[in-house]
Amino acid sequence: xxxxKSGKKNITLAVLGIILFIGIVIxxxxxxxxxxxxxxxxxxxxxxxRQQFDHPLQRIALWLGKSAVIYKQxxxxxxxxxxxxxxxxxxxxxxxxxxxxxxxTQHVICDWASERTDGVFSEVTEFTENIQNFVIKNIxxxxxxxxxxxxxxxxxxxxxxxxxxxxTLEGKYVYENGKLNFERRKSGRRSSAGDxxxxxxxxxxxxxxxxxxxxxxxxxxxxxxxxxxxxxxxxGTILLGPICPVVKDPPDPxxxxxxxxxxxxxxxxxxxxxxxxxxxxRDGSFSVPLPAGEYxxxxxxxxxxxxxxxxxxxxxxxxxxxxxxxxxxxx
Length: 331
What we know:
Helices cover 31% and strands 28% of the residues. It has helices at 2-30, 39-52, 56-64, 119-138, 148-154, 199-213, 219-227; strands at residues 66-73, 81-89, 93-94, 105-110, 167-168, 171-176, 179-184, 231-241, 258-259, 263-268, 274-279, 285-291, 293-299, 309-314, 319-327. Helix 4 packs across helix 6 (199-213) and helix 4 runs parallel beside helix 7 (219-227). It starts with a helix and ends with a strand.
């Protein structure tokens, strides 16, 4: 009887050993670099991966699996070479790169060219580190990387328009007609991390935000501006009038101002930077959330004299009511 039990135990151990062997072999044979690397780049990746996987359990998981470079950015503004690495453990299970086990993709930055040491490089680097640390602390480390939706979720003072032209791994963000879209390059590698913002993209994002909030602001002031401004709301009705050339007494109901059913553009107070767009209901009512500040609301298709705008003030945590009338020019 004991011999039978011992035999079953040996068979079980043998099966488990075979399963473990297969699990180890799969990543070793199937995980390969998507680009060719120099010896120096390979050393950089090896050192970067070991530095990020600093937990003993992570080291064991990495030993059972394999890492590979899935993308190489060669035209970065801040750094010349950015190697995007994905690591796997047994059975090619994606391996996280923090001891909290909540991120699948890591970014290993290798730069052998002389780094820019001017103010732009320093400020963009400080800006990038600050917003990424803020995201990790308050939301968690992103699975694929830092993208526009993640930043918009983390920072109430950011607007979709801030990401216009921001470069990513496989394309760029485009803000047009009140909507933010990701445009993938027609040629090149496709992956789930295609919308992750690269170094050059963070510089574009930084410049966009600074241009909106003020070119003389420091990095700390910009960070404060997008984190502490808070969100308020503007609501009310938008009408078009006068409808008749002569005001009658008593007023003719047919000559009452008409509600506008259409699309409106939210700009800065100067009217030269677009933030967002919203639509009214058929009764002219609207409600739109905005970061605290002063804005100008214009009609996408004005039917009155010239381009008209109405100033509104947004207060964090409050709703400001406005009755806005656009002039038809009828007298």
